Amino acid sequence: MSGQLKSELAAGQRPPLLQNHNLALLFEKPSMRTRVSFESGISQLGGHALYLGQDVGWGKRESIKDFSEVLSEYVDVIACRSYKHETVEQLARFSSVPVINALTDYSHPCQALADVLTIQEEFGRLEGRHVIFVGDANNVSRSLAIACGKLGVRFTLACPDGYRFSDAEKLEIEAGCGTFQFTQTNDALSAVADADAIYTDVWASMGQEKEQKQREQDFADFQVNQALMEAAPEHAIFLHCLPAKRGQEVTDEVIDGTQSRVVRQAGNRMHAQKALLVWLIGGQN
Ligand code: CP
Ligand code: NVA
Questions:
Q1: Angle in degrees, CA 185, 266, 19, rounded to 5
Q2: Most ligand 1 atoms within 8 A of CB, residue of 28, 33, 140, 245 to mutate
Q3: Domain architecture of the chain: domains with CATH
Q4: Which three-class secondary structure string do you get for 176-231?
């Protein structure tokens, strides 16, 4: 449905599939892409978004239970970006409307939807493709790994020792994915040899600011630069969830280069989330 909504928009059509529906955006952390793609996306579908900042006082003025039960009396769906994953889970537990994870310290599933849409647009068939994530075991790589596992895409995490998923986390990701080729390595150069997509993210995520300096040292040999792209097949694309720290995890040459699909990927956030909203509250899929 993402692809259909995207084509319709390009043709000037904005079917009002969610007319008069309201989406509450509840964000503890900064955001550009997620916030704007949800706001614009629901508006294109005839609905409305309410951005709720810290002043609404969730978890501070009142319990998450009271907050969530009351908020869901007013809106049709909630998207929440929180530091702790448990916060989104608590909201969902007490909400009578669907709650979307708009990024937590644990996962970023909306990003993964756009990522696989972008890879599918590039290559057609997803099954059998190979995605290399050069970066740590974080929210973005966890969700991307799960999406790859469910769609028959091979996934390799290339990172320094000490930044991988633990055995237990790896098992959790693999659960429900059938036969999933999921590898972790500290040899990024060899890993990209048969890559279809090379993906990276910031070395220190929101909430890890104190680790920034240490991580810059630890990840210094894990930059996605032209040398790494040249070790991959010519058809390999470069992806990044953005925002990027240019000169750290990726060079200007790569992010601005011909293999980069980062702008299309960010644009796809909106198309994928429109489909998600329609699936959740539009009564069709
Ligand atoms: N990729 C992503 O989620 O971007 P924002 O933090 O700007 O929403
Ligand atoms: N891993 C990053 C993703 C930002 C979209 C973070 O959590 O800050």
A1: 135
A2: 33
A3: 2-107+268-281 (3.40.50.1370), 109-265 (3.40.50.1370)
A4: CCCCCCEEEECCHHHHHHHCCEEEECCCCCCCCHHHHHHHHHHCHHHCECHHHHHC
Rounded Cα–Cα distance for residues 82 and 229 (Å): 34
Express each pLDDT in 156-189 by its tens digit: 999 999 999 999 999 999 998 888 999 999 999 9
Structure tokens belonging to residue 18? 């969610």
Closest by Cα among 248, 250, 232, 231 to 240: 250
Confidence of residue 247 (pLDDT cuts 50, 70, 90): very high
Give me ligand 1 centre to Cα 36, in Å. 9
Which strand ranges, in their side-by-side order, compose the sheet holding 130-134?
182-185, 154-158, 130-134, 197-200, 237-240
According to the model, what pLDDT value does residue 284 have? Answer: 47
From its phi and psi, is residue 215 left (phi > 0), alpha (psi between -120 and 50) or beta? Answer: alpha
Residue nearest to atom 7 of ligand 1 (CA): 32
Q: How far is the CA of 136 from the centre of ligand 1 (A)?
A: 17
Cβ atoms of 153 and 124 closer than 8 Å: no
* Res 151 pLDDT > 70: yes
Q: Token match 């693999």: residue?
A: 174
In this structure, the dihedral spanned by the alpha carbons of residues 127, 131, 136 and 140, taken in order and rounded to 10 degrees, is -60
205 CA distance to ligand 2 middle (Å): 5
Answer whether 33 contacts ligand 1 (Cβ < 6 A). Answer: yes
Active site residues: 81, 108, 111, 201, 241, 269
Nearest CA to ligand 1 atom 3: 34
